[in-house]
Amino acid sequence: MELVMLNPNMSAEVVKKIEDCRGSIERFANDKSRAEKIVKLLQTRDEISHLIMDTTDTSLEDVAESEAKKILQTVVLPLQYPERFKGFLSPQKSILLVGAQGSQKVMLAKAAANASSAKLFNIPSSVILSKNAEASVDFIKMIFQMAKHAQPSVIFIDEIDTFLRRAIRQAKAQFVVEMDRLSSNSGDFGVFVIGATDRPQEMDEDASGRFAKRIFVEMPDKKAREKMLWKIVKNNENNFELSEKEIDQLALMTENFSFDDLLELCQTANLAIVHNASEQNKFFHGAMDAQFRRIKIKDLENAIEEKQKPKRKQSNGKEKESQIV
Asked: This protein's superkingdom (predicted)?
């Protein structure tokens, strides 16, 4: 009997389960639809298992203190001390993080999961939207089932406004059902759902109402940016030559920069150094590591200058337009 093709990226454990299933399936060869459904569910389970995010590199100390305190009270403590939050004392089981692109929403979810020793299911909206009606419903069901089995666990859905706005009706309805089950079932006290959006006004009112609380996330403040810069430097200490004063100076210079922006600055500065070294040794197959000097504050200042060029061009263009008018 011909069944659904196996995903080549599937884990060995799930492939074995599917192959074992194939043997059992022969016994009900007349029921091809049931056989195919078993295989599809195993594939869905494997796909979701690959979306579990490593959180060991992020802690509450890495995020702004104000947001860290809110996350600690809302997510971490109930997951850490479930026996204290039962019955009428059952905690909220979902929050919506609202903030501009580049704010630390993903980092907050990772920090919350890490501090709670919880598994983090990182579910991009695009993954759900790429599926047909039946597959998207099965996918959503499986997410919540796996989270319940793995509790303590956190389900994080980024750009949830996109999912709720564009999702097939059946998928949206299934999400609402799962959220209602979660909030009404005291046995699932170890599962928490975090949604993230930068466009709360575009969210479906019925579905967004399932989130018990909204937390507004600001762009990283100076202290948070300084922590992030130190984290990057310490993780690559052989590649940097920066003093405490210079780190503080860079944190001041990068107002309204996200954590991704800071990482991009360091990557840009490093690439420029490698490029220059390879240009000077163009007759060789490659430059030696010893010829790559360390990243200094001037390199990062140049990277900041490069990043700000498009913004200046845009603002100059607007000024010229206003003068013409």
From this structure: Eukaryota
